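Table S2 (text version). Query chain:
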Amino acid sequence: MTLASPPKALDSVYAHQAKLVEQAERRGDDLARVLTSLGLTFDDLVYERAFEKRWPGQKPVQLSDFSRQVSGVPLVSFFTGCGGMDLGFEKVGFDHIAAFEHNEIFCRTLRKNRPSWKVFGPPYASGDVSEFEEAAGALETLIEEPFEGVFIGGPPCQPFSIAANQRFSRWGENFKRVGFAHEKNGNLLFDYVRLVIRFRPAIFVVENVPGLRDLDGGEQLSAAVELLKDHGYVVNEPMVLDAADYGVPQYRERLFVIGSRVGGDFSAPAKLPHVGAASVLADLPVGVPNHETRAHRSGSIQRYMQLRYGQRDQLGRVDRLDPTLPSKTVIAGGTNGGGRSHLHPEIPRTLSVRECARLQTFPDDYVFVGATARQFTQVGNAVPPVLAATIATCIAKAYFPTLAHLGAHSSV
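Corresponding C-alpha cell output:
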C-alpha cells in the first residue's frame, strides 16, 4: 500500500473519522474494534492536515548498495546486540568469526537471521565480556594472537565512580592496576580494551554514544586510548558521525574510535545529502515480519490527529515525523519498558517495529524476535547497518588496500 497520494475528499474523510473517534471516546468503546467492524484499520486514519509535504522520491542508501571490498579478513564482534554493526561489515566482505552478546533475546535474533554465525551467549554461554577468561577461552579456539582481523564493539559505559568506586588519573599506574581489577563490577569499555590487548587484532573499532567522549570529563576514553597506545596501537581521533549525513533517513549520532597496529591512513567518509523519513515510510510494509501496529485508545488518536509535522504530543511524548526530513532518533527505551516509537508522518499512529527498522536501514527480511517491546529495544539499540557498512568500507580502503576492490558503491 502506498501513501504517496492523499485519499480523495480528504476533508470529508477526516470529518467522518473525527466523528467516529469522538463517539468511541465518549462511549468508552474500543477503537480498534470499532474500526474492524467497519472494515477499517488504524492505517485508514488521517491527520487533520495531511499530505501537505512530499518527499521527491530520492531513495536512501540501502545495505544492498554496498559491494564487497575485502575477502578473507576475519571479524569478531562484542556487545553485538541484534547485529547492526555486523551486518554492515558482513556486506562489505568481512568474514564473521564470532559474536559475543549477553542478552538471550538478542542472541535469538542473531541465530534466527544468521544461523551460520558462532554466537556466544545465552543459553549456551554467558556472552558476558566482563567474564574475561570465558570470553578469551572461547576466542582461543577460533583465532590466534596476533589476530590479523578486526574487532568491533560498542561497550555500555558507566562513570568511573560506578565502575571502580573511585576516580583514577589516566596517567597513574593506580588506574591501570585497580581499574582492571574492578572491571567485572563496572566498566565494560576496559573489558573490551583488555581483549584487544590480549589478542592484538590488526584493527579495532569502539562504537558508542557521543557522551562517551565527555564521560568523567573525557578521562575515561582518554585512559582507554592511552592503554591502547601503550600496547602499540595508532589510535585515530574519536569522531562523531550523524547517520543522516551518510544516507540514513534518521538523525542518529554515534561515536567511533578506530585503532590500528598495521599502518594505513584512515579517512572519515564523505557526507551525502539528507533523505526524508518518507523515503522508507511512504509504502506500508506488506507481508513482512515485525509490522504489528499498536491499537491506540481513542483519546490518543484524537490528540494525534491535530498534530502538525514535527509537533510533539506532550501527553504521550511522541512526535509526528516530517516526511521531508530524516526521522528523529529511533529510541530504544529501557530494558523493561521497551522502545517508544515516533508517529507516522501521514497516519496518526506510532510506527511499527518494521517501520523503525526501515529508518535504521535493516532489510525487511531481517527478523526481530521476542515480545514487541523487546523488538523495539533491539532496533533502537542498533547501529544502522548502512552507517556500519560506510565505516567498514573506509576501514577496508585504509588498512586492507591490497584486498579492496577499486571504487566503492555509487552512493558513497
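Notes on Table S2: Confidence is low (pLDDT under 50) at residues 161-186, 334-338, 405-412. The first strand starts at residue 74 and ends at 78.
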